């Protein structure tokens, strides 16, 4: 009898433990979901996330509040999300910097501290300047060769993905520029528009309006082939620079987030990606609306990036602070 009572007590305790987990799928989401963008408002990461979240929340059934946490090339925001409660109510926008930062800095997280959910977009890195400064890549090369180290280019952060892309271009081309780290792509763009630096490196969507108005010129893109939106823009390979690079922007949850929550968020975004409202919003912003990935493909991308970025760091001889 005592044994039976013990078994009964154990079963009751086990059932009590399982009830919240079993009820999670039916209840989630019971409140708004927060998405941390670890960069300043107005940049590509911010715009990409806000446009996608606005459509996805229709399918999730709860508001998705986007909050900016700039600092440390993404480290501030990533660290906050990594240590947040893994309950499905705090997510992070991520890009290559979530892989780069732990490889080059002392951080309290690694890319494995997160569970990939979806990738929202991919865009090639593109070198830009004020049209009055340079009009072609050839003009820039001539100025760089005439005054080595005299050309300055702003990047979104020290050892950020765009910084590594610039270092790869310089190594392959033999040019010498001064890289000026800022605190996010919006600040890097402002530095170039204000004439504080000669160049910046951006996603094509970030300065599309300024390019159309003639204020800004795109000189070179690190795309694998010419862009439909800018058919006259040369790719790096055409100039003898074998570099293909560009940021992806996805969503992750803290490691340990229940499968039910991850699946619900993925489902909401996959429905959003097929929604004409999303396609229209991305198209108007100059973003490709067909470069998203589901969880399986995004997870595979992140795993491959861990290998590729480690190789780039070794290739460029970057000195780390680890």
List the domain count as a whole number: 2
- Strand numbers in spatial order across the main sheet: 2-1-3-10-4
Mean pLDDT: 90
Derived structural class = alpha/beta
Number of strands: 10
Number of helices: 11
Q: What is the alpha-carbon Rg in Å?
A: 22 Å
Q: State the share of residues found in helices, binned by percent.
A: 40-55%
CATH superfamily of the largest domain: Bordetella uptake gene, domain 1
Strand content: 15-25%
Shape: globular
Describe this structure in words.
The protein folds into 2 domains: 29-123 and 247-316, Bordetella uptake gene, domain 1 (D-Maltodextrin-Binding Protein, domain 2); 126-239, D-Maltodextrin-Binding Protein, domain 2 (3-Layer(aba) Sandwich), CATH 3.40.190. 44% of the residues lie in helices and 17% in strands. The chain has helices at 2-27, 44-60, 75-82, 97-104, 137-146, 161-173, 185-193, 208-213, 259-273, 276-284, 295-316, and strands spanning 33-37, 64-68, 90-94, 114-122, 126-130, 151-155, 177-181, 199-202, 216-221, 248-254. Strands 2-1-3-10-4 form a 5-stranded mixed beta sheet, with helices on both faces. The chain has a 5-stranded mixed beta sheet with strand order 7-6-8-5-9, sandwiched between helices. The longest helix has 26 residues, at 2-27. Mean pLDDT is 90; it is low at 1-23.
């Amino acid at each position: 009898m005592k044994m039976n009572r013990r078994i009964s007590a154990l079963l009751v305790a086990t059932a009590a433990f399982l009830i919240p987990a079993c009820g999670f799928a039916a209840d989630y989401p019971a409140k708004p979901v927060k998405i941390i963008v670890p960069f300043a408002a107005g940049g590509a990461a911010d715009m990409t996330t806000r446009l996608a979240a606005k459509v996805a929340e229709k399918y999730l059934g709860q508001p998705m509040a986007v909050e900016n946490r700039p600092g440390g090339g993404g480290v501030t925001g990533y660290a906050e999300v990594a240590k947040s409660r893994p309950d499905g109510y705090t997510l992070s926008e991520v890009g290559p910097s979530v892989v780069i930062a732990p490889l080059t800095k002392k951080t309290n997280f690694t890319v494995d501290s997160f569970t990939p959910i979806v990738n929202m977009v991919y865009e090639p890195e593109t070198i830009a300047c004020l049209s009055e400064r340079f009009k072609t890549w050839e003009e820039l090369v001539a100025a760089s060769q005439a005054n080595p180290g005299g050309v300055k280019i702003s990047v979104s952060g020290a050892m950020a993905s765009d910084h590594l892309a610039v270092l790869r271009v310089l190594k392959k081309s033999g040019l010498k520029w001064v890289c000026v780290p800022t605190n996010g792509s919006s600040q890097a763009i402002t530095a170039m528009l204000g004439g504080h630096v000669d160049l910046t490196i951006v996603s094509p969507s970030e300065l599309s309006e300024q390019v159309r108005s003639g204020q800004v010129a795109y000189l070179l893109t690190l795309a694998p082939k010419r862009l439909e939106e800018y058919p006259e823009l040369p790719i790096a390979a055409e100039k003898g620079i074998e570099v293909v690079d560009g940021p992806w922007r996805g969503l992750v949850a803290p490691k340990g987030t229940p499968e039910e929550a991850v699946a619900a968020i993925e489902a909401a975004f996959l429905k959003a990606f097929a929604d004409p409202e999303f396609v229209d919003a991305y198209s108007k912003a100059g973003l490709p609306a067909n470069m998203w990935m589901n969880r399986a493909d995004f997870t595979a991308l992140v795993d491959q990036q861990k290998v590729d970025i480690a190789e780039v760091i070794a290739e460029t001889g970057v000195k780390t602070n680890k």
